[in-house]
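Task: encode each sequence below as structure tokens.

Item 1
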Amino acid sequence: MSHHENWPKAWRSPEPKKRYDAVIVGGGGHGLASAYYLAKEHGMTNIAVLEKGWLGGGNTGRNTTIVRSNYLWDEAAHLYEKSVKLWEGLSQELNYNVMFSQRGVYSLGHTLQDMRDIERRVNANRLNGVDSVVVSTEELSKRIPYLNTSADARYPILGASFQARGGTARHDAVAWGFARAADALGVDIIQNCEVTAIRRDQGRVTGLDTAKGYIETPKVGVVVAGNSSVLAEMAGLRLPLESHPLQAYVSEPIKPVLDTVVMSNAVHGYISQSDKGDLVIGAGIDRYNGYGQRGSYSVIEHTMEAILEMFPVFSRVRMNRQWGGIVDTCPDACPLISKTDVEGLYFNCGWGTGGFKATPGSGWVFAHTLANDQPHELNAAFAINRFISGALIDEHGAAGVAH
């Protein structure tokens, strides 16, 4: 009888070296992807990923796994489309099944203004080479039989946009796949290693104080989601971010009834069904700033109302569990992927609720930025100085229901 006791570890658990050419702070999907592409695309193998807890224990494992690229503005659409293209070959590239399922994403419209906005976004998407179509109410009722398309609904559905190449992926598998692939390229992945200080000398980074001692490095890439402001303060920086708890839910497993993703900004909820039958549900951020991963009852209540407005048939389905992740949001609902005024210090943050879908693309452009000390053309517009120049990328309309 065979057992699994002697299975090889998916990645090593080394002690940190005294010096690295670059250090990524944050062992979530974005951080691991950044390290992987630094090694694979730029030949930097003397690098480390520092994670204060366990890999994928932050927002990577606390989201609703939606992937799409149908954003309005050119800058965002190009960045997210790069990510979707990477998603489409990611399992093969990493030799690890990330369970990317292109089941499509619908964004519902409930008013004439909603439909005008949807048509505008669909046209903008198609000009940017992003697949997107407008779907009528009649077509929706055929494609999603349990969706409440009645004209007597409190918020009648007038149509939707649809991106067929969107879908979902398995969040844990994404972290594990990038971790194993980065480790195989020589990256040191160090868990339970919290950064306590960022050392600087004459305006440039010199190293990090951590729970496992001092680490010397000339380059630090910070990718810590909701804790970005905390790390920035260590370097004397103030970022234009707010951190909020974002809640999600999963139900008891039920038979397959929903083979796509349905979102609605108006009723403020979104839902899909996982491969094992859970209904995966998300909604808005808690209005208060904070780092609690519990969330609040008012958001739970509002979310359930939204889901039942769209799918009355789910009224007797029981929720298994609820949790919160901490998101950092920028004023224009777009991320920061930028070098800073401190030489050798780079930040990748401010994704709000859109972080998971961007995981591979975010890592790809951030690795380029760290390796070359300048942005790739895909993330040049997401520099921190846009809040001084006024060149904002206002994606509130297309960023998702939680912005």
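Item 2
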Amino acid sequence: MTDLASLEAELAAAVTGAADLAALDAIRVAALGKTGSISNMLKSLGSMSPDERKTAGPAINGLRDRIAALIAEKKAALEALALEAQLASERLDLTLPAPPRRKGSVHPTMQVFDELTAIFAEMGFAVAEGPDIEDDFHNFTSLNFTPKHPAREMHDSFFFQPNDAGERMLLRTHTSPVQVRTMMSQKPPIRIVAPGRTYRKDSDQTHSPMFHQIEGLVIDRDIHMGHLKWTLETFCRRFFETEAVVTRFRPHHFPFTEPSAEMDVQCDRSGGSIKIGEGSDWLEILGGGMVHPTVLRNCGLDPDEWQGFAFGLGIDRLGALKYGMPDLRDMFSGDVRWIDHYGFSAFAAPNPATGLS
């Protein structure tokens, strides 16, 4: 029979020297497992004589119990050390300063949104809003679009499936329906701007399928193109924050205005940037004109009594022009590095008293 005292001393030394729970469990299996050294001794009791079992049985069982107790004691000690190590690694020192947090920034589109609102509010315009999902009448028919106009086609506008009545709703292609709803719901005189999201099937460096637009409408007696020209020139000087802005009007065609015009600003495009108020180049920034008599009639107004002008411009494109952003698609990418670079402080709200930007 194996010397029990030597085996016990060997196992006790191994248990005491176990560095971690995995090493301790390996010792347990080697001694007390199904094929362990002590387990094999217990199996050999069946082949002994009754007199031998009387002596060897208590000795082997005693060895098993002592080694098992020693392993349990060592396991408890190792588990306590492991817990202490875990707690130490997860300790949070509340006396240290908190890690820096990312500061929020106002998106350039919202900055320009606020700038435009502040400028037109100073000029006496109220802000009007309307739904993003429109019907054909408010988005096209009331605005004098012909039945076969390209904007009514699927390749140009985002249409929904026809409803039970066969009518196709769509995502509005401009904020002009807000003008229609205003003329149909309140009596002149009217002086509003209608900022909001608009949608068209167009995407490149200077176009986005979802973009922001602001439109203006004035309805009163004896309104003419001179009023429109003064309003837009005053707006440009205020927005670009320089008196050196030079503008020009070019004849154009819009279904909802007659006469219609696009307005350009003089600029310098040399050197990879656009500089407003200098140079010999021109850049188109908005369109407008006198409200078409048919639109007035569609909204229940008599064109012989009431006249008005309307204009529209892209908020995102104005922001890109003023703050030097080369690609409109970056404005919708959600890149925090981009917003960190081009974003504005939320505490610097644009207003005529302290300045726009």
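Check on item 2: The radius of gyration is 41 Å. The CA atoms of residues 121 and 127 lie 8 Å apart.
End of task.
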